[in-house]
Design goal:
The structure is a single chain. The protein has 9 helices and 13 strands. It is α/β, with parallel strands linked by helices and about 350 residues long. The chain has 3 domains: about 5-80, OB fold (Dihydrolipoamide Acetyltransferase, E2P), CATH 2.40.50; about 80-240, Rossmann fold (3-Layer(aba) Sandwich), CATH 3.40.50.300; about 255-320, Ribonucleotide Reductase Protein R1, domain 1, CATH 1.10.40.50. The strands form 2 sheets. Strands 1, 2, 3, 4, 5, 8, 9, 10, 11, 12 and 13 form an 11-stranded mixed sheet that branches. The chain has a two-stranded antiparallel sheet with strand order 6-7. The longest helix is centred in the last third of the chain and has 42 residues, at about 300-340. The radius of gyration is 21 Å and the shape is globular.
């Protein structure tokens, strides 16, 4: 099955098929006013994106009737999605992914707070997160080993891959190929200039994405990817979704996700005197006591508290919009089943 469609995704899509005449398509690219739909037979069609109440994103599945308007297409509810909190609320970036590649340069890999933030975004997506350290050929093998260990120490058991686009085997891209063994979709996220487009080009064997230079004075990258686009991986039934570089990774995750990233704090918090302990000035706080004795790193506790506050704030702002989204999903499911006589 092409387009990254696997048995799990297919069974889910079939639940929402309006009629036997409808055929399955996937959103492979979204621009400002248009989107590209890719069909399982290899054909594509460009249509206007006029779904203001529930805008499609790259990776979405749709049931499409022959030669009908966009409004007649049935949007399949998402199994997974990467979201980002910003000034305009919580936005979905891509959907229906099996893996999320959290891309960092070898310099970023030792920034523990960035790694912890990305780990929370990865676990919250509903997909399997993996860290991909890029450009490891720019520094020594010892530096690459240190960067890998640094990520593993704070990423709550997420697999870590070291890559370079110079060679396919020794550079680690060969290791990533294990993720393509079964039909799947992987989405790449990271800052501008981290090397996402170079990875896409190396894996697909083609210059799919334009590459940009990184400024020497601050190692900052430029935006070379301007839209979220799905690419098929030659010789496999899997796909990759490239995304524009993000300057900020705003957090708005589900309850328990941050606890999973900071599992040593979550586990020990059961010994606190109060169930709602904030691990600040409360008496009988097991976490505060562990920080004083050095059992728990004070920096880890501060990062944990910061991410909890930020996520709670962004989730509170997004609550009305999420309620509307849930209502839309319910309405869609009810309509699909009604048209099928269920």
């Amino acid at each position: 099955m092409p387009l990254g469609l696997n048995a799990t995704q297919l069974a889910h899509c079939e639940e929402f098929r309006p009629s036997a005449e409808h055929v399955l398509a996937r959103v492979s690219r979204v621009d400002a006013t248009q989107l590209v739909l890719s069909y399982l037979d290899g054909s594509t069609v460009v249509v206007d994106s006029d779904w203001r109440s529930f805008p499609p994103v790259t990776g979405d599945w749709m049931w499409c009737p022959p030669a009908e308007s966009m409004a007649a297409r049935a949007h399949v509810p998402r199994l997974s999605e990467i979201t980002r909190a910003g000034r305009k609320g919580v936005r979905t970036l891509v959907a229906n992914i099996d893996y999320v590649w959290l891309c960092v340069t070898i310099d970023e890999a030792v920034r523990s707070r960035l790694v912890e933030r990305l780990a929370a975004i990865g676990w919250d997506s509903g997909a399997t997160p993996v860290f991909v350290i890029t450009k490891t050929d720019l520094l020594s093998a010892e530096s690459a080993t240190l960067a890998r260990r640094s990520v593993r120490d704070v990423s709550a058991g997420i697999d870590v891959f070291c890559t370079t686009t110079v060679t396919m085997g020794s550079g680690g891209i060969g290791e990533l190929a294990t993720l393509f063994a079964e039909p799947s979709t992987s989405a790449l996220i990271g800052h501008s200039g981290v090397g996402k487009s170079a990875l896409i080009n190396a894996i697909t064997g083609e210059d799919q994405q334009r590459l940009g230079r990184v400024r020497e004075r601050d190692a900052k990258g430029r935006h070379t990817t301007t839209s979220r686009q799905l690419f098929e991986i030659p010789g496999t039934q899997s796909t990759l979704i490239d995304t524009p570089g993000l300057r900020e990774f705003g957090l708005a995750v589900a309850d328990g996700v941050i606890d999973d990233v900071f599992n040593e704090i979550d586990t020990l918090s059961n010994a606190c005197r109060f169930n709602d302990c904030n691990h600040a000035d409360e008496p009988g706080c097991a976490i505060s006591a562990a920080v004083e004795t050095g059992t728990i790193d004070r920096r880890r506790l501060e990062s944990y508290q910061q991410l909890q506050r930020e996520s709670a704030f962004n989730n509170a702002k997004a609550l009305p919009a999420r309620r509307d989204k849930d209502k839309e999903y319910t309405r869609m499911a009810r309509e699909y089943r009604r048209t099928r006589g269920r």
